[in-house]
């Protein structure tokens, strides 16, 4: 669901120094600070921010976003993500990323989705690779860290022709209960279109 300022009250208890390590934004030290961070994302037209809801309990599990969408270049970035520790190692991240990637490739019709993380953030890097993204490289001194030092950033991507395989891998990881109904419908429609393309493709010479 769309991120709201009120979600700060649900998500702030998840935040600690270790779980926030490697994040691009400064660690919020109060609910009010997290609310201000969310408000800035909500107000930014270049960001589509979401709250991720645990369907079993109805609680807010975390947040993730699509941002820097460049329509004429058919690309978008996926990130600004964090989840409570109780959700690490579960399928909540994979399910939410499947939803956003499906939206990006099937609705926005992008050619490229970019994901990035601090090179020191090995947990995020592992999660990105597990999604099926490919490491493009490392941008040295890409941004200024909270301590004033320059930070290297790893850049990953998923391209349009890679999406069917990435999607299949994510769907394989998930149970039907993990999949949102609208995502299931998009996947089924996409598979129908792919089958139609194959059926009507010219025979090899």
What does this structure look like?
The protein has 205 residues and is α+β, with helices and mostly antiparallel strands. It has a single domain, classed as Aminopeptidase, CATH 3.40.630.30. It has seven helices and six strands, in the order H-H-H-E-E-E-H-E-H-E-E-H-H. Strands 1-2-3-4-6-5 form a six-stranded mixed sheet. Helix 4 packs antiparallel against helix 6 and helix 4 packs across helix 7. The radius of gyration is 18 Å and the shape is globular. The mean pLDDT is 83.
Q: Numbering strands along the chain, what is their spatial order in the largest sheet?
A: 1-2-3-4-6-5
For the biggest sheet, the summary is:
6 strands, mixed
Number of alpha- plus pi-helical segments:
7
Count of beta strands: 6
CATH class: Alpha Beta
Helical content stands at: 25-40%
Distance between the termini: 49 Å
Give me the secondary-structure category: alpha+beta
**Mean pLDDT across residues:** 83
Indicate the multimeric state.
single chain
Looking at the structure, the CATH topology is Aminopeptidase
Going by CATH, the homologous superfamily would be Gcn5-related N-acetyltransferase (GNAT)
User: What integer value in Å does the Rg equal?
Assistant: 18 Å
Query: Any guess at the CATH architecture?
Result: 3-Layer(aba) Sandwich
Shape: globular
Low-confidence segments: none
Strand content: 25-35%
Give helix and strand order, one letter per element, not per position: HHHEEEHEHEEHH
Q: How many domains, in number, for the residues?
A: 1
